[in-house]
Amino acid sequence: MLLAGKVGIVAGASGAIGTATCRVLAARGASIICAALDDQMLRDLLRTAGQENLPYLGIPTDIRSRGDIDRLVARTLEAFVRIDILVNAAGIGSSPAMCDSTDVELEDVISINLLGSARLMHAVLPTMKTQRSGSIVNVGSVAGEAGVMGIYSASKFGLRGLSDSVRREVKSFGIGVTLIEPGFIRTAMNAAMTNRLPGPEIVAEAILDAIRRPRRTRIVPAHYILPALIARSFPGLIDLVFGDARIQERLNRDARAARSASGVESS
């Protein structure tokens, strides 16, 4: 029971990665606060947890709202007195082409993927600093290594920089900050892709390892490490490849078809 007695908040708990993370951490003995929108997905998660006697406390939370975040932290401290773990697993995608996104979508991606994570860290850090211990794990993306996914890439680039900054700020307090950067994983965000994608459990296990041994960054699955290194070392090559009109058309084809099928119009 590696995490016995520990208390962890998982933001985005009802998503594929969040649900897998809740299970992995609970299996190691942690008490889990499930933070997610008050919808059927959260209700299903908590019903399953009750049937399986998992140590979950559900707190409906919209991380676009600072008031919701402050209530989440206050209720966690009221119930458990401490906060040992924060996993920022909430996130939404965007169209690869910037001009295919509406203004509302632009704002939502930044509000959830970047500002939501920043506010959650801002809210839990005073408690972790007082404890002089804690683990924060932010779920980014390999799209935060190569700018090819519109506003989504921007949000994940921002999360990478924020994770670096906060890590350095809180290192002397015994708080670890790790960025996990998944590639394509079998989630609702990649529903149109093949079922041969690895499941969200691979990300959950990486999160567990980051809590046990904090590190700067971890990319999963491992075969994305080389492309990420190339993107960092040879940005001109990425410009050459993804600046090609044919590559752009292929990159955006599926996204545009999905938007058309759902009746969503571009701005």
Question: What would your notes on this structure say?
Answer:
By secondary structure, this protein is α/β, with parallel strands linked by helices. It has one domain (7-262): Rossmann fold (3-Layer(aba) Sandwich). 51% of the residues lie in helices and 14% in strands. The protein has nine helices and seven strands. It has helices spanning 16-27, 40-51, 66-80, 103-131, 150-170, 201-212, 225-233, 235-242, 245-262; strands at 7-11, 31-36, 56-60, 85-88, 134-139, 175-182, 217-220. It has a seven-stranded parallel sheet, with helices on both faces. Strand 4, helix 4 and strand 5 (134-139) form a beta-alpha-beta unit. Helix 3 (66-80) runs parallel beside helix 4 (103-131). The longest helix has 29 residues, at 103-131. The model has no long low-confidence stretch (mean pLDDT 92).
Properties at a glance:
globular, seven-stranded parallel β-sheet, single chain, 267 residues, 9 helices, alpha/beta
Q: Count of helical segments?
A: 9
Beta-strand percentage range: 5-15%
Topology order in helix (H) and strand (E) letters:
EHEHEHEHEHEHEHHH
Q: Quick check: average pLDDT? A: 92
Q: How many extended strands?
A: 7
